[in-house]
Amino acid sequence: MPLFRSTREPIDPLVADLTAALDADRVRADGAQRSLAAHDASVFDGGIAGPVCFPETTEEVQAIMRIAEQHGSAVVPRGAGTGLAGGAIPLGRPVVVSTGRMNKVLSVDTDNRIAWVQPGVINLDLSKKLRPKGFHFAPDPSSQQVCTLGGNVANNSGGPHCLAYGVTDAHVVSLEVVLPDGQVAVLGGAEDETPGLDLRGAFVGSEGTLGIATKIGVRITPNAPAVRTLLLSFATVRDAAQTVSDIIAAGVVPAALEVMDQRMTVAVENYVAAGYPTDAAAVLLAEVEGLDGGVEIDAARIEELGRANSATDVRLAGSEKERAALWKGRKTAFGAVAQIAPDYYLHDTVVPRARLADILEQIYEITDRHEVTVMNVFHAGDGNLHPLLVFDAREQGTLERVHAAGAEILRASLAAGGVLSGEHGIGVEKQAYMDELFSPADLDHQNRLRQAFDPACRANPGKVLPMGHSCADIQALREMPTGVWG
Amino acid sequence: MSTLTSTDRALHDFAAQVGAEDPIAVEGNRTRWHLGGPLDELARLVEAPTGIVDYQPSEMVVTVRAGTTVAELHETLAAAGQTSALPDRGGTVGGAVAVGENRLDRLGRGSARDAVLQVRYVSAEGEIVTGGGPVVKNVSGFNLPKLIVGSLGTLGLIAEVVLRTNPLPPVQRWIRAERVDPRDIRDALLRPGAVLWDGTSSWALVEGHEVDVDAEVDKLATLADIADVDGPPELPPHRWFLSPQGAAHVDTMTDGAFIASIGVGTVWAEEPPQPAEPDPVAAQIAERTKRLFDPSGRLNPGRRAGA
Lengths: 486, 307
Hints:
Chain A is an alpha+beta fold. Chain A contains 16 helices and 20 strands.
């Protein structure tokens, strides 16, 4: 089937219909555009995109859905493509719907403390726009300079400051969504409680499998007047992890509690010179927000608990500049690894906080055994681990070792009472592990939820649920991407 | 695999009681029994299992069976300086989750919907289904807990939940304020537990470290005539669901007594609420959901979430 328009070849009827509904500039079926849309930020290759559409309105998204339905095509929504689990990788040549042109902040309603945005608005752009009004959008994924709010909704994204404020689903009040049949539903609203099933809550984190959000109402959070940022150094990772548990047990809920191991701090120091000690086995970056008096008390308590766990150094950021440098180090951690090796595979699991130290020891053991370098930087306060396996894919056999180590890390996390993903999602990455966390009945019920929105399985098919449990998957899914492991 | 251990005997027994055939409903303490319409009288009544299964204060999660009262749960949590986002109105944990309403101090404690990390329920087919996970952060698969909270037992009968807990603030002070726009109180306080308004007087739950609470109360004193009070005012019986702005203007919508939750939107009023007009397409999704989860319509027959 020809997908390239040329004077000699007939125009693909799907592309022709899409072009008639949008315009030629905003329906791209050329190889370059389709190749771009075939990847996200994960290690998975081999997605095959159909035409890539750039709608600007809800009506255009409806038109795309209906045309795709008429042609028997699936539809895959796409934000900035920063996903790490392959959730945006197009399987089976679907129509790709980019939200890139739906990038307007529609209104900021400080009375209701809600911002109404289109899905292509970039996370950090919203917070920048809110700053003069004294508010921000709380979820702050590491990719916040580029990732979109539509993508945040699809993945129920987290970030370092979600410890105190909650992840995306606690901040989404309303969603206008276009269903795979082209109908528009409004889920939730400015009302705090809406009677009936919480379809809004069910949609958040559904990885594009229920429809496309075209308008999002998000809670905006007032900026705290006082903040204290501490950097605690430890001679062992275990001491750092124990301090995290003790802080939570003491009733302190910091805005953020982030741990980095020594390999990571060394890489970050070489990269941006953020001011981290390079001789500590682990550092804990703790931040408390609130009013002046309370943050002093909480910061003192964190220092006390750190020292009780043999902290070798406790430093309070003395200025906004110093604080910004510490956070820059944390948020550029993944960029810093490029100097270690050309490729990385970032994992994402959650364990009970009390198991953090045990699991980290297992992760070091597993990666040593597979001869893979691991670096750790993670949301310790949530028990959310991000082991980063760094490697050079050009070395033969390396990728296999990386995948084998990753699989063992996942299973160790499950064995510790954890879950498969804290914030990256399942996508294609962890589908094969879903039945290690859930029973067939559990997966069947997840599939029923999926079917209530998308009976024909045309929204981002082949994701999240393992093949045997997902609704009658469309035949187009014969073409699986390479590198999908399990 | 969520294999069941011997401690889950109670869940198995509950599933066996529920069975897979006849019309069935679960009964808690009937504190919100009227919600969702009258129960079909043919429905057989069962009670959910009770007991706190596991509680680790440093994890800020608790595993509790649905028949446990919220009062018993909160007593256990309070001993470790914690509480949950579920309202205690004399009912059970399962009832509170099935209803999904928030506490009066929702601003401080968060929403009931965000508190349920994992749910185990008995399906229409009589199977135990687990949704979500027992940790504070989780995006593994579809969010069944969100669907179950507020579903009035129409999609599955709740047997056990894992709840997020949160620390009780060191100090909590209820303040009554006169001659002030309640929205100014809301804006003046960084993280109030609650701000209420009856059309004349306002109430604020000021909470946190003592030094902060004192500073915030001093700030309120510059805005209004204030006095310390024992607690919130008595709440009228009917619950309205408005936006925060709507609640701040509810005095134009009713002649009866009301208490409005400022910054939240919930209003307790003497008069019953106007029936909500649900989004028609969302209503279709909700109907499909019910048919898919309960094809024979045996779970809580007669009831409908949002009715």
